[in-house]
Amino acid sequence: MTTSEEYASVRYVVDDVPAAVDFYTAHLGFTLKDSPAPTAFADVVRGPLRLLLSGPASSGTRATPAEASGPGRNRIHLVVDDLDAEIDRLKGAGVSFRSEPVSGPGGRQILVGDPAGNLIELFQPARR
User: Fold this and answer.
1) 40 within domain boundaries
2) Domain assignment present for 103
3) Which residues lie in coiled coils (predicted)?
4) What residues pair up with 43 in beta bridges, in sequence order?
5) How many CA atoms lie within 13 A of 99 on its CB side?
């Protein structure tokens, strides 16, 4: 097995690759790394995270069993400095939220849905 020390990679199955690329680059600070088959596959990066966006024609999607074809409860976790400011910014851009803000001993979080329904957690750590 090979290893990459540059990125940690996560695959999200999406319905519309260009819409997903637009969402992650416009709203969440990702940059487009590669898009060899723009309607089937693209990868975007943010810091050490490489997010593989696989559309219906990609091999990554075709390998997914039918019973696991919808978005799951797993999510990527993005740390933000000011959760309230991010909520206001994203609401202003028309981004859909999948939860209300939740507070706990470690900090505050809210869930956002990408165009395919995959979850993204925006998390502001508690001040210590």
Assistant:
1) yes
2) yes
3) none
4) 34, 52
5) 15
Torsion of CA 99, 103, 107, 111, to 10 degrees: 0
Report yes or no on 87 lying in a domain. Answer: yes
Calculate the alpha carbon distances from 128 to 13, 106, 109 in Å: 37, 9, 17
**Number of domains the chain is built from:** 1
Q: Tokens 């590669």 sit at which residue?
A: 34
1 within some domain:
no
Q: Which of 9, 4, 15 is nearest to 30 (CA)?
A: 9
Q: Residue 107 in contact with residue 126, Cβ under 8 Å?
A: yes
- Residue 49 tokens read as 């995270």
Each residue of 17-65: pLDDT tens digit? Answer: 999 999 999 999 999 998 877 788 899 999 999 998 988 888 666 656 6
Which pair of structure tokens corresponds to residue 33? 């790394």
List helix spans (H) across 1-128. Answer: 17-27, 59-62, 83-92
Q: Please identify which residue in the block is written with the tokens 């400095």.
A: 81
